[in-house]
Amino acid sequence: MISLYTRRTYRRESLPLANLVKISLPLLTAILLGLSFWGVPVADPDLGWHLLGGEYVSLTGEAPRKDFINLLRGSWHDYHWLYQLLLFELFRYSSFSGLAIGFGVLSALFFGLLALTLMRQVGWRAGTIGFALIYLLLQPAWVLRPQSVALVLLFCCQLALEYRQRGTLLILLVSAVLLANMHVYWIFLPLLWLGYRVLPESIRFIKGLPSEEKISSLYGFLLLCGAALISPYGLFSQGADSLTSFLQNYALLWDYLSLQPEIKKRVAEMRTPFAIGGYIGPLVLLVLVFLSRRLSGARIQENIGRYFFLAITTLLALNSAKYLGLFAIALAFVWRDIVPQQEQNGSRWGKLVSVIAIVVILGSLSFLLPKTWRKFPENAHLTNQVLASYPVRTCAHLAQMRGKEEGPVRVLTPFSIGGWCSFGAYKVAKKDHLRVLVDNRTQGIPNAFYREVFDLFMLRGRWQETLSEWRYDFIVLERSRPLASLLAAKDTEWKKVYEEGVYVTYQRRVEAE
Question: Which 3 state secondary structure label does DSSP give 494?
């Protein structure tokens, strides 16, 4: 097998581009599929506090350190701050419709690049099938969140490593610095360099072969590992007086991997692919079986970088469905190795793949063309969607009920609406006029806290002690929750004071009266 790292291989893999007729329809399908994501609802549980964090950075010119959203958290290591700033600036000038259109355009560009890369590697037929498979794995993780931007950067960086583009280390370094201020996925860029540069050099050293690197691969790895220091939570930390004050982006890695069991049990994306239901579990199993039958030790050793990354992402994806996007990206670069060679030789298998590819393309186009047009984002519709999904107006009203000198209004909400509650409050009052006790952020929160929260809303465990011990002014929750039914009883100390859609708000009777 010809090494992928040679220029000769790069030119040979470019041959499928010669026939634009064969690649135009699959490429158009991928682009339309990406644009259709502007119809994805913006009523995402995390979007509220992302916008709130971005507004803080925009107004103050610095990343937040004090938590102005949650009453029980003293500090906030907002490692998403750069993504949130860009998100808020887009929202400021174009509201929710701008966010939706921006996400659709980003998805279209990425899906087009992904489809084009696969077709250059294995031809339009197998490339189309590979794109469909990778999209199905990617789709659950493809949402309007910083992880999607991180996946795009990771794909582009791995593409540069595959073809040994000039300035690859600089590309990875800049991307790692950007990602360190957007998402924890920055750590995969040093790991990619480790697989594509350090491991091959180690193998050559063991075999007694001369080095092929002009720049020390190990120094490049150390440089990329230090990218997280270029951050307001790193070397540019204000008032840093200890070693840990500028190592927060590194400490976060352990916290991210050791996710609280209570959260993992109750949030679908954090469960294993086999526990979330649907097609994902069987599809992951099918891909792994197919991989095991097609790979060989010689092939893995020859392309150690891509298989090193595939192994890491496979283990992560099997542990939590939230990592399926990483697994899909890694699979895109090994697809050429697992596609049967007969497909490219005009055999019966190749004809069958052609028929399947044509059916997939035509079926997708007939579905996507009207859907993309029909789902073009309208700001009024998206705003109503948010207002119908979260108690934004209720929390805005609660924030106005108390003056600044009396301290913030303390509101207990379920896990999924705390960020939007704070977002609604900020629109009519200063940040410190309302604080929630629970929101969507999980880093740095003890597992026992979330266990008490979930038990309270479900009336389990020591919920009575939690209800009486915690000090808050209002409880905002869905009326379908067991706790809402209990609070609605006439003999409790709580009185219903507001209703908004599916949400109901309770206040202590003495204060309400």
Answer: strand
Whole-number average pLDDT of the chain: 81
Smallest CA-to-CA distance from 474 within 420, 416, 394 is with 394
pTM confidence score: 0.87
How far, in Å, CA of 357 to CA of 456, rounded?
A: 51
Q: Give yes or no for residue 136 having a pLDDT over 80.
A: yes
The neighbour count for residue 77, using CB atoms within 10 Å, is 20
Q: How far apart are CA 308 and CA 299, in angstroms?
A: 12
Identify the pLDDT of residue 495.
86
Does the structure show a pLDDT above 80 at 297? no
Q: Decide: 123 and 86 in contact? Cβ < 8 Å.
A: no
Output the pLDDT for position 113: 94
Starting at the earlier edge strand, list the strands of the sheet with 494-500: 434-436, 409-412, 474-478, 503-508, 494-500
User: With contact defined as beta carbons under 8 Å apart, do 51 and 387 qualify?
Assistant: no
Neighbours of 478 (CB within 10 A): 16
428: Cα separation from own chain's centroid: 30
- The encoded tokens of residue 200 equal 């091959």
Rounded to the nearest 5°, which phi and psi values hold at 20? -70, -25
Q: Which of 45, 71, 1 lies closest to 408 in space, CA to CA? A: 71
- Specify whether the backbone of 494 is left (phi greater than 0), alpha (psi in -120 to 50) or beta: beta
What number of helices (H) and strands (E) belong to the chain? 24, 5
Cβ–Cβ < 8 Å for 349, 131: no
Chain centroid, CA 58 distance in Å: 22
E strand map for 6-112: none
The two three-digit tokens of residue 193, written as one number: 């360099």
Return the structure tokens found at 398.
Answer: 């609660």
Residue 61, token pair as written in the block: 């010119």
- DSSP code for 495: E
Distance CA 123, CA 49 (A): 44
Q: Has residue 86 got a pLDDT over 90? A: yes
What values do phi and psi take at 271, rounded to 5? Answer: -85, 175
DSSP string, 313-370: HHHHHHH-GGGHHHHHHHHHTTHHHHS-GGGGGT-HHHHHHHHHHHHHHHHHHHHHHH
